[in-house]
Amino acid sequence: MYTYMNFQTRIAQTKPSTLHNQEEKCPFCDRETIFKEGVVISQDGPFLLIENKFQTLEHAYQMVLVETMTCKDDLSTYDKPHLHALFDFAMRNWMSLEASGQYRSVIFFKNHGIHSGGSIYHAHMQLVGLADVDYRKHLHPEQWAGIVIDQAPGVEFNISTRPRGGFTEFNIVLSDRNALHKMAEYVQIAVHFLLNHMNRRYQSYNIFFYEYEGDIIAKIVLRAPGSPYLMGYSIIQVPNNLDETVRRVQSLYFSDAK
């Protein structure tokens, strides 16, 4: 049922945390040092894919995708050219790592906020090459099925009726890679809704990306203190107001929604 990986606690204890200490210097704003250290794997304009200096997982290679030059912006506020270019860069590097044959699988995700498992405020994503683990063996199609909020050729935006972790999860299912930019816009809408309308108290979310049977899926998850039902008993709670949430998103972001 579960996959276990060893976590290097001593390395983790040395990591900076600008989420918890705003006086701490942001390592991703200091590009001069990043380039001096020789950890840049790929670059395109403001986007960097760099080696994670804190390799906390055994049998894995951890990388960070830096999304912006400074700490000012986040995914919910990017203009469309920046948003589209970010997803182009991220997808290109993710697929290249998957095709390299170096890893059993490559996981791709984003943390935002103190409840997300992140430590750095500066907008970034993470790519992790797993030597021995194929994350796909834990995936099931029902996990990204749901009530449709909006759709366009090659991509669907829905709210999950069978969430992986419980409560509110949005899914964007990309079946045509040419619709990647539309997928990016749907992801941004989901993130903006979570931060500004769904639950302003916690201001935390994760985005998990999956490749499954030819589709690319993005799952956007509202993060808050963990449910004891899930942690203790693997019982997943599903809200009884999903239809209401769908109508709220449609009224806010899709004015022509019926």
Summarize this structure briefly.
With 258 residues, this protein is an alpha+beta fold. It is built from six helices and ten strands, in the order H-H-E-E-E-H-E-E-E-E-E-H-E-E-H-H.
How would you describe this protein?
Residues 7-133, 138-254 form the DUF4931 domain. With 258 residues, the chain is of the alpha+beta class. It has two domains: 9-136, HIT family, subunit A; 139-253, HIT family, subunit A. It has six helices and ten strands. The chain has helices at 9-12, 31-37, 80-99, 180-198, 228-233, 242-253, and strands spanning 40-44, 47-51, 60-66, 105-112, 124-130, 146-152, 155-160, 169-174, 205-212, 215-222. The protein has a ten-stranded antiparallel β-sheet with strand order 1-2-3-5-4-9-10-8-7-6, sandwiched between helices. Strand 9 (205-212) and strand 10 (215-222) form a beta hairpin. The longest helix has 20 residues, at 80-99.
Descriptive terms for the model:
DUF4931_C; DUF4931; HIT-like_sf; 10-stranded antiparallel beta sheet; globular; HIT family, subunit A; 258 residues; alpha+beta; 6 helices; DUF4931 domain-containing protein
Largest sheet data? 10 strands, antiparallel
Strand order of the largest sheet: 1-2-3-5-4-9-10-8-7-6
- Which CATH architecture of the largest domain is right? 2-Layer Sandwich
* Structural class category: alpha+beta
> What radius of gyration results from the CA coordinates?
18 Å
Order of helices and strands: HHEEEHEEEEEHEEHH
Mind telling me the CATH class of the largest domain?
Answer: Alpha Beta
Q: Which percent range fits the helix content?
A: 25-40%
Question: How far apart, in Å, are the first and last alpha carbons?
Answer: 41 Å
Overall 3D form? globular
Q: How would you state the average pLDDT, rounded?
A: 93
Count all strands and give the number: 10
Q: How many helical stretches? A: 6
Q: Return the CATH topology of the largest domain.
A: HIT family, subunit A
% residues in beta strands: 25-35%
